[in-house]
Structure formats: C-alpha cells, structure tokens
Structure to design on (271 residues):
C-alpha cells in the first residue's frame, strides 16, 4: 500500500512539473511544435514497446537534445507524446509542453517514463495524422514549423487511405517524418519487408521530411535521439512527397488494407 501511494504521488508531482512548463500562449514563439506519434498496435511486441518508450525518454534526457533546443532561433519548442493504434484510438500521454531548458526537457522525459505501456489493435497511420492536425489546432503558440514524428512497424490497415491524410496535412504546411521499425520479431519476420519504402512513398511529406529506419533493437535510443535532434534543428530541402493523384508510386500504398481484407476472407472460409 505504501509503495502504491508513493508511486501515485510521484506521478502527480511529475504532472505538476510538466504543467509548470507554463501554458502555451499565442505570444510564445516556438522553433518547432512536435507531435511524437508512437505505434502501440497489436503487432508491437511488449519488449519492442519498452525499448521504444525508453528511447524517447533517453532522448529528452540527452544533453545533445538539450543543446539542439538551445541552438534554435528562439531556443523553445513545444512537444506532445501520443500513442496510436486504430482509427479512433489515439491517446495523449504527455500534453503540449514548452521545453526551453534542460530541466524542462528532463521533466518531460520523467513524466513520460511513468506512463503505463499498453497494446492495442489495428494500425491507422491516417488516423494519427488526422488527429495530429487537431492537436496543432489546440496549440496556442506560434511555431515556425509543425512536425509529426510517426513511428510504426506496419502499413496502414484501418481508416481512410494514408496518402489522402498525408496530402491534406502537407497542404496545411505540416511536415511528416517516419521511423519505420524493421527488425525481426520472435515470429521471424518484419511486418512489411519494404516498410521503409512504404513510409517514404506513402507516409512522409513536406519540406525536409525524411525516413529513418530502425533495423536493430539495440539502436532504438541512438536512432530516436538522432531523429529528434534532426527534427528540432530542421533541414530545408525540397518537399519529399508523391501526390496521391499525380502519379503512381512504386510502393502499393494500400498494401495494409489489402492484407487486412485477405485475412478477413481467410477467416470467413474457415469451417
């Protein structure tokens, strides 16, 4: 009982630290507003989820990330951490938080570290992109850039087609980056062999957007730290996007939906 009370008190204290970062006002000039969108669908194994969470926690405790924030034009960013699965399953674990010092970055990391890890169902990348657009609308600050950091281990298989969600977000000036998780699982294979290509052609978009694949679970922390630093710094480049109605990408952007349909038909045929 005493341990439970101490854990509960710690969660409330950490929540207070995050809120102490201050409300995000229209006057707050932000170098970037970053939605960290983390896949918790059923294909994500428990150990994999733990490594992913630890990677983001370590990133915001890293002095390299602290320096990247301080080196920005305003030295101030806003970050929120969201877990997602199906088209109607998005949960904000850490709300919009201004980070303008190492202490506030560490507070954000500590608050995230205390959140429970869960496993959900389907994979709706389009759903989290649409939800992220709503989160940006709730942001009172004035970010120079708006970025969605999507990590996941499989293609979209729920909700509307991902290319339409992506195109609409990019048209609003939002940048979408991808962290495809591609190492082998206990089952012996990845969700999609060309997941990095899928993310490149079907998910990411906007000026300076990029894909940073993860092939080794031991590199979770290093890859996530590098990705966060790059997103904070921002890199101007030509938009990397293949408009849905302009051309036919070499990757089938509805491969997840087709696989889902095949699985449903297979289940129906069973005696």
């Amino acid at each position: 009982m005493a341990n439970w009370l101490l854990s509960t008190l710690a969660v409330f204290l950490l929540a207070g630290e995050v809120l102490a970062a201050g409300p995000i006002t229209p006057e707050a000039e932000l170098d970037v507003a970053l939605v960290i969108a983390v896949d918790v669908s059923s294909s994500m194994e428990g150990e994999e989820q733990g490594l992913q969470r630890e990677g983001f926690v370590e990133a915001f405790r890293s002095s390299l990330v602290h320096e990247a924030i301080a080196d920005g034009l305003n030295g101030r960013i806003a970050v929120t951490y969201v877990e997602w699965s199906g088209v109607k399953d998005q949960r904000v674990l850490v709300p919009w938080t201004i980070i303008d010092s190492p202490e506030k970055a560490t507070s954000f990391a500590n608050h995230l570290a205390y959140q429970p890890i869960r496993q959900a169902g389907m994979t709706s990348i389009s759903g989290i992109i649409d939800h992220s657009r709503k989160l940006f609308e709730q942001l009172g600050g004035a970010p120079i850039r708006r970025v969605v950091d999507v990590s996941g281990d499989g293609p979209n298989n729920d909700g509307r087609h991902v290319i339409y969600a992506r195109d609409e977000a990019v048209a609003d000036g939002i940048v979408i980056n991808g962290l495809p998780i591609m190492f082998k699982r206990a089952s012996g294979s990845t969700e999609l062999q060309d997941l990095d290509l899928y993310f490149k052609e079907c998910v990411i978009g906007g000026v300076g957007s990029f894909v940073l694949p993860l092939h080794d679970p031991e590199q979770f922390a290093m890859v996530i730290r590098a990705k966060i630093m790059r997103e904070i710094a921002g890199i101007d480049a030509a938009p990397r996007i293949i408009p849905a109605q302009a051309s036919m990408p070499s990757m089938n952007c509805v491969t997840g939906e087709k696989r889902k349909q095949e699985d449903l038909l297979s289940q129906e045929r069973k005696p």
About this structure: Residues 1-23, 237-248 have pLDDT under 50 and may be disordered. The CA atoms of residues 178 and 211 lie 5 Å apart. The chain has nine helices and five strands. The first helix runs from residue 2 to 19.
